[in-house]
Amino acid sequence: MNKIIATRLLTLLFMAITIFPTNAQKKKREKVSFEQSPRQTLVYDNIAYLPVIRSVQYYPIGKENQLPVYNLGSSDQLQLTFDDLRGDVRNYYFGIEHCDKDWTPSRVNILDYVQGFNEDRIEDYSASKGTFQAYTRYSLKFPSANLKPKLAGNYILKVYEDADKQRLILSRRFYVLNNLVNITADIVPSLNVSKRLSNQKLNITLKTGLTIPNPQRDLSIVVMQNQRPDNLMTLQQPNFSGNNEFRYTHSETFDFEGNNEFRFVDLRSFRIASERIKNIQIDTTVHVRLYSDEDNSQDTYAATFDENGRFYLRNRDIDDQDTDGDYATVLFSLQTEQKIKGNIYLVGGFNSYLRQEENKLQYDDKTNLWEVSLRLKQGLYDYTYVWEDETGKVHSSTFSGSHFQTGNDYQILIYNRKIGTYWDELVGFGERSIHNRK
Q1: Which domains does the chain show, CATH number per domain?
Q2: Do the Cβ atoms of 240 and 248 come closer than 8 Å?
């Protein structure tokens, strides 16, 4: 009898728990609610669509300073990382889109350039630890098990929220290479006498087994200086073609301003100020003021070490730069006697050289300085000032001068549009550097 009573009591207790969940169970089932990211219009460029998306990096794994180039069919991967300063955990997805050489959408069907599904979820994320600025660090490796490209060319990687492709968080350009062209390049002084001391000219030769009957129509070369999308040149007309060789050596082609070495700031520590830091203030957040930059446009060349515009997240205060690195509001200033009409911007790899309101300098009548404050994570940053005149033309050497001796990297991309096709394939990639010369 006692066993029967005990059995019935256990049954009633189980039913009570099932029908009337405890408060703890209710809390566990409640969904955390927060405002979704707004819908955005896709821009085919390296864009962070929200000001809370920071410290975006995209590079081949193990090659942090390289352009994001993936060799078609290889086991290599690219890695994308970014911080979300909202500090919560969101459902982020990513997909890709094939583009032509000029970064317009190609006419290729998605089934022809994607293997698997053209959507995957970002599963790797972690919260910041002990920082004034809370954030969540997200990371993905591409290609993933579910999403791989199967056609060479330019691509846009899109990250968006809740599988809604219009709730864009960021977009990043990358390149898929089917290497069929051998590239050699020489860097020489400009053949224009007035530019010999300031410019660097590239002479490029291509060799390939591809059949290209009309190189003026089907073959294109794009050359970037220091991975800068705002400083590139495109050419289709070779000086010589024959025996599967193409030469681009015309006196007026691929003639770049050498500019000057990048300015830099070491923000690896907020405890010990580096040489460029004037003072650090810490209360509820971190404020860093730098010494003013001078106008070097009239100075002779002086060799200094730089990273050719790149940035690296590093932390000397605590071991893990990914989640222990903190953010600071950093005040930059430029001192110049030049009368400026137009806008001055502070640009570098950290903001993809974009000219936006947040990195536009403002003139302070009290200090006679051009100033801008930027939100930056602990690390090493190269940067430069560019002037956008009243016509919209951008001048990269206005405050730095331009010198042939400047150390620069040049990225060379070769595109081919095969007969009977309607898209541009990336069939060659090379890099050529000129080192500091005294």
Answers
A1: 47-177 (2.60.40.10), 181-258+406-434 (2.60.40), 263-395 (2.60.40)
A2: no
